[in-house]
């Protein structure tokens, strides 16, 4: 079981790392490495935290599929009542296959929706399109009319609030490509209301990802609430407020209480929405799945180059790109602790032919030897979903732990599968 004292389901039983009670070495032995291991129990716990904190208001949790789009995960989230935030026709297809009952709880975000993706979403009967431009609105109206459907829409407004996070994952400033400037929104809503095939029913906002303070969320929702009231004053029947995702987690060693953190977020949002009758939509990704997962990798070699000591693992940037892409920090822990080993400072790197292929630089860990297993923690979100086949490496396998049982939810690909779409 997940200890309530730890935000991670990866805990030592004696000197052996376990995921929700299941021995990680045994998993690596059975399924090979690199291996993503997730705790389904930990995912349910995070959804439970959100459900509890938002219980006083009408709400739907629309899990952001891009954070980790595993069909097995989507199936389980659908079963416990979640909706989904999708950003492509491919993600819609995932939801249709893994959680068909949840299609009516899907919101469709993204700045570049294509006609075929709109058609698929209209046919499927999703809950809401988060429209990001007037040109998109026009195309959506056209597609809805062609299919004899009505598209329920929210405009994704850009509230121009600054959220302190990595510049690549900040989205709520007027200089970003996302959304429609909030000042212009009333005029665009007016147009939307006049378009056949379009029914404006919501307002949506998403200011970025890995945001650790509640103030930017509160500021954004405050601005959106004002807009909702103004639009209602103009006679529009706005029923949904989509507050987006973005709630951050602690990737380092610092104390982190996810439950207290979610409570703070919920209290801030609920207080901004006090007295407003509305159906709140939430689009968490990272908060739900990041800490439930780890990437397990085996040390292939160690070597000394000048002053630098290198630990070369069988996982690489193509399996987990966050350190290379955002200089993101992941805790790296030995799967078996040895009291007799000293500490050592090293660069922990993958085999891919790029100097950017590192997981950690100048990191102190227990001295690692060839054959040892390490766990890269908090890798459940934006890990496997960003994996590539660079260097013609197959994707890691994935295992889900539920109630003390390990289930393989994605086997390692074969080379035949890897090359299947290629012609020569
Ligand atoms: C990526 C994204 C999310 C999820 O963000 P997290 O930081 O993972 O919670 C939610 N909504 C939209 C529109 C997104 O693009």
The CATH homologous superfamily of the largest domain is termed: Alanine racemase
Radius of gyration from CA coordinates: 23 Å
Strand content: 25-35%
Please identify the top-level CATH class of the largest domain: Alpha Beta
How many beta-strand elements?
A: 21
> What shape does the CA trace take?
globular
**Average pLDDT reading:** 96
What proportion of the residues is helical, as a percent range?
25-40%
Residue ranges: pLDDT <50 for 5 or more in a row?
none
Main beta sheet: 9 strands, mixed
The structural domain count equals 2
Structural class: alpha/beta
Small ligands present: pyridoxal-5'-phosphate
User: Distance between the terminal alpha carbons, to the nearest Å?
Assistant: 51 Å
What would you say the CATH architecture of the largest domain is?
Answer: Alpha-Beta Barrel
Please report the number of helical segments: 12
In CATH terms, what is the fold-level topology of the largest domain? TIM Barrel
């Amino acid at each position: 079981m997940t200890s309530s004292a730890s935000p991670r389901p990866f805990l030592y039983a004696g000197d052996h790392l376990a995921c929700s009670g299941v021995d990680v070495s045994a998993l690596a032995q059975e399924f090979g490495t690199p291996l993503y291991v997730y705790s389904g129990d930990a995912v349910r716990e995070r959804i439970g935290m959100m459900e509890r904190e938002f219980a006083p208001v009408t709400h739907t949790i629309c899990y952001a599929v891009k954070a980790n789009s595993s069909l097995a995960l989507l199936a389980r989230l659908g079963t416990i009542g979640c909706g989904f935030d999708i950003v492509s026709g491919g993600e819609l297809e995932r939801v249709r296959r893994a959680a068909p009952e949840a299609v009516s709880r899907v919101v469709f975000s993204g700045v570049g929706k294509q006609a075929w993706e709109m058609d698929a979403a209209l046919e499927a009967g999703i809950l809401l399109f988060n429209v990001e431009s007037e040109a998109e609105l026009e195309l959506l109206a056209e597609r809805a009319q062609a299919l004899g459907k009505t598209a329920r829409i929210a405009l994704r407004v850009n509230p121009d609030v600054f959220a302190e996070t990595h510049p690549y994952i900040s989205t709520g400033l007027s200089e970003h490509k996302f959304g429609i400037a909030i000042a212009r929104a009333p005029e665009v809503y007016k147009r939307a209301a006049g378009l056949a095939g379009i029914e404006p029913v919501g307002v949506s906002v998403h200011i970025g990802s890995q945001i650790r303070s509640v103030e930017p969320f509160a500021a954004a929702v405050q601005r959106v609430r004002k807009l909702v009231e103004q639009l209602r004053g103009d006679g529009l029947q706005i029923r949904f407020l989509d507050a987006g995702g973005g709630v951050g987690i602690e990737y380092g060693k610092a104390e982190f209480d996810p439950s207290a953190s979610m409570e703070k977020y919920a209290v801030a949002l609920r207080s901004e929405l006090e007295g407003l009758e509305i159906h709140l939509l939430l689009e968490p990704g990272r908060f739900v799945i990041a800490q439930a997962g780890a990437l397990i990798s085996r040390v292939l070699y160690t070597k000394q180059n000048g002053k630098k000591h290198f630990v070369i693992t069988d996982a690489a940037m193509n399996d987990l790109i966050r350190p290379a892409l955002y200089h993101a920090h992941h805790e790296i822990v030995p799967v078996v602790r040895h009291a007799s080993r000293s500490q050592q400072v090293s660069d922990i790197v993958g085999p891919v032919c790029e100097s950017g292929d590192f997981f950690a630089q100048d990191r102190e860990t227990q001295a690692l030897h060839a054959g040892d297993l390490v766990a890269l923690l908090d890798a459940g979100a934006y890990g496997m979903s960003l994996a590539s086949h660079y260097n013609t490496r197959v994707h890691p396998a994935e295992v889900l732990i539920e109630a003390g049982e390990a289930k393989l939810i994605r086997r390692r690909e074969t080379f035949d599968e890897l090359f299947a779409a290629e012609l020569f």
